[in-house]
Amino acid sequence: MQIYIDGEYYSKAEAKISVFDHGLLYGDGIFEGIRAYNGGLFRLREHMVRLYESAKTIALDIPLPLEQLEQDVIETVRRNNLRDAYIRLIVTRGAGDLGIDPRKCAKASIIIIATSISLYPEEMYENGLSVITVPTRRNHSEMVNPRVKSLNYLNNILAKEEGNHLGYAEVVMLNSDGYVVEGSADNIFIVKNGVLITPPAFLGILKGITREVVMELAQAMGTEVRETVFTRHDLYNADECFFTGTGAELIPVVEVDGRSIGTGKPGEMTKQLLAAFRKERTETGVPIYPCCQYPSAS
Ligand code: PLP
């Protein structure tokens, strides 16, 4: 495995950063999770734009222009001979001293890891997930805005842990006003009377790239899509429900807090969108290799 750190490539054993890096000391940094399918990087530009927007909000200077860093992402995947991959792109505040002041960190550090991904088993896509709502509320937008994909993921980890404790693979988070916002690492959608509904970004969610793709696909299918607030009552009484994310893609939810959603099986719109998403992801990526010279799948 070849790991990129600040313009150089290192083996897994040699890829190391300073213990004074504020990414480690304080979670001061940002990241993206990006997928490659069939030799193409899916929605690469959208991930790069979100990374630079996260950086702007936390006043972090990424020491490379977007186009250059985008090429470095492609090159890292190429060097690892991958055609289906999960890419973790990280920008930390860099090494400073033990105080929190970011001005002590001379230069941000960039890390790119390209590896294979472990997925939810296919049967979960066929049968759907049972989930619960958890006590930990999603960060308030005026505190650490969930739109920033920051290295400080404790809010999500606490929610995930509450699900783990009770044996659930994913959870639903509410915001401090009690509105449904998202999963621990996924966006949430419901379907009611043929309308596709998802919480708006201002409510305090990560504005997912997969979420955007799914909204576009639904609109192309002629479905009405609404970004609107909803409560647990609306969730329990939805006809269908699913999560979206780079890792999970689009996964049906069939039970929430012991209540069956709709028929208790993945719904028709969910199935149609999953099929459309699977087609989209393999046909629209940014090419990693010159035409027809993909390394064979192993
Ligand atoms: N919400 C949270 C909190 C996440 O961590 C993620 C993915 O990492 C998502 C939503 C889904 O976003 P995307 O589709 O861009 O992966």
Salient structural properties:
nine-stranded mixed β-sheet, about 300 residues, D-amino Acid Aminotransferase, Chain A, domain 2, 8 helices, D-amino Acid Aminotransferase, Chain A, domain 1, alpha+beta, seven-stranded antiparallel β-sheet, binds pyridoxal-5'-phosphate
Write the topology of this structure:
Elements: E1 2-5, E2 8-11, H1 22-26, E3 29-37, E4 40-41, H2 44-57, H3 66-79, E5 85-92, E6 109-115, H4 122-127, E7 129-133, H5 154-166, E8 171-174, E9 180-183, E10 187-192, E11 195-198, H6 209-220, E12 225-227, H7 232-236, E13 240-245, E14 249-256, E15 259-260, H8 268-283, E16 286-287
Parallel strand pairs: 7-8, 7-14, 11-12
Antiparallel strand pairs: 1-2, 1-6, 3-4, 3-5, 4-16, 5-6, 8-9, 10-11, 10-13, 13-14, 14-15
Bound molecules: pyridoxal-5'-phosphate (PLP).
The site of pyridoxal-5'-phosphate has 14 residues, from helix 6 and strand 13.
- Strand content of the residues, in percent? 25-35%
CATH fold call of the largest domain: D-amino Acid Aminotransferase, Chain A, domain 2
Average pLDDT:
96
Structural class: alpha+beta
CATH superfamily of the largest domain: D-amino Acid Aminotransferase, subunit A, domain 2
User: How widely separated are the two ends?
Assistant: 15 Å
CATH class categorisation of the largest domain? Alpha Beta
Overall helicity: 25-40%
The ordered string of helix (H) and strand (E) elements is: EEHEEHHEEHEHEEEEHEHEEEHE
